[in-house]
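Hey team,

Filing this mostly as a record. A colleague (T.K.) asked me to run one chain through the structure pipeline before their review meeting, and I want the input and output archived in the tracker in case anyone asks later how it was produced. No errors, nothing strange. Just documentation.

Input sequence:
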Amino acid sequence: MENIQHVERHHRHDPATHQCTSSVSKHIKAPVDIVWSLVRRFDQPQKYKPFVSRCTVQGELKIGSVREVNVKSGLPATTSTERLELLDDTEHILGVKIVGGDHRLKNYSSVVTVHPEVIDGRAGTLVTESFVVDVPDGNTKDETCYFVTALINCNLKSLVEVCERMAMLDSPQV
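Output structure:
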């Protein structure tokens, strides 16, 4: 019940008529501290995001910091400029807004929350990422949501793999 209230509080977006919004959740068989240690790294998204080839952040990592992300080939973009909107290490919340780049994701804003849970009797984590974005000219809301949701699913699938591998290395061998 607590997770539902948390999701409702942090993943509620009020899209305008020309925007779409959705969310994706994944269960990870790894403790929340391992998962959060990767998610919170605004300066190193390439640690788990497979389409990021390089990321640079100028100055200290804090709310308002801006990162320049280079995107690997295969996506309809090469760069993205993104601002850190929210970083809460207590509640495990990360908020990011795209502020520039050579792509079609205008007015994109996302929130990622990380929640501890028990999976198969062991420490696990529920990760939820939600977004709101403008629908580009020539696309429908459904097409835009499908594209962004597929991208998030790919990123979270990679996060699952990286975190579960880290958890296996951390756990005592039986």
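Quick notes for T.K.: The mean pLDDT is 90. Helices lie at 2-10, 32-39, 141-170.
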